[in-house]
Write a structure and sequence with these properties.
globular, alpha+beta, single chain, Porin, 4 helices, disordered N terminus
Amino acid sequence: MGGPGRRGGTVPAAVSQPRVYPPEHHVLRDLGLEIETTADHTARAWMDVSHAVAAPWGGVTAGVLATMVDAVCGNLAVFAAVPDRVATADLALTVLRPADGPQIEAAGRVIRRGRTTVVVEVELSDVAWATATFAVLPQRAETPGPVVGRPTGRRALLGGSGRPIGRWLGDEIGLAVTDAAAGALSIGLSDYVTNSFGALQGGMVAFVAEQAGATAIGAALGAPATTVDLHIAYLAQCRGGPFRTAATVLAAGDGAGSATVRITDAGADDRLTTVAHVIAVAGGAP
């Protein structure tokens, strides 16, 4: 690991070379995610509410809630799929109201373990509900094993408590807005935001897509917008970078709007990696 600057500034190791995962500095550590997984295919998780992850209407932005969902679901799916491995295929999140903190608690459970898919359901306190679908893939010798060991109690998800994020998460990970009306955002790839495959972590993909949709809707409404519904299809791993978003606003008026978002990988001939649908509202709760 090397390279000066912000935490997200180190260049990830080549995917073909051995990687240590998770690295010492990682966004999931710094978000303070804690998880407890039990032997009955259920899990509980906790994350503090802070200004670094706040949405315009207060509480926690949907992209961070989706990151928590992805972590909880991924943890459960890893164990459900043994001896195989998993990759996130689809994630859907509905936000009911702002999370007023000081902490969010999530409860997840495996609702299907099929031959090719694992489906997990998550309730986040009384503020949101989500599902995630994972593709079951053959295990590879070069792929790192599960992030955590077999359940023994509540612990930090990646080990260690991390360092509290002192600024808006988007700034921390290097997310830049190039054209708000077009939902055009960009982010590079760094060890700080990777998954065990060396690609952009699934929760961070959700965060980027959600921010792109909310930014475009907010520009159309003329006020900052908060995502209340997010549906993501993961088409390919975000391995190259930089990654760029483009949003199409489908409707905007009466304080709410909807948009579709596409994420492409400039480092892989602008390959389409992710599509998402975002519904957002202006200002406070709907």
